Q: What sequence folds into this?
C-alpha cells in the first residue's frame, strides 16, 4: 500500500483502493497460498531479531531488579 502512495503522487497507476481491496484481490488472484507468500522469509528474519531483543530486555530487567530491589 505504501508504494501505491508513491505511484499516485508520481502519476502512476493505483492498483488497490484500500487494504481490504488488496487482500481480496490477492485471495481471488492467487488463492490462500498467495496470502502466505513470503511468510517463511519473514519468520526467518523476525525470530532471531525478536530473540535478541527479548533476550537483552530480560537481561536488563534482571540487572535493574537485582540492583535496586534486592538487598
A:
Amino acid at each position: 500500500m505504501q508504494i501505491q502512495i508513491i505511484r499516485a503522487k508520481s502519476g502512476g497507476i493505483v492498483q488497490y483502493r484500500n487494504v481490504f481491496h488488496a487482500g481480496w484481490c490477492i485471495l481471488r488472484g492467487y488463492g490462500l497460498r498467495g496470502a502466505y507468500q513470503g511468510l517463511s522469509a519473514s519468520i526467518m528474519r523476525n525470530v532471531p531479531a525478536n530473540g535478541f531483543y527479548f533476550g537483552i530486555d530480560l537481561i536488563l530487567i534482571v540487572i535493574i531488579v537485582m540492583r535496586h530491589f534486592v538487598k
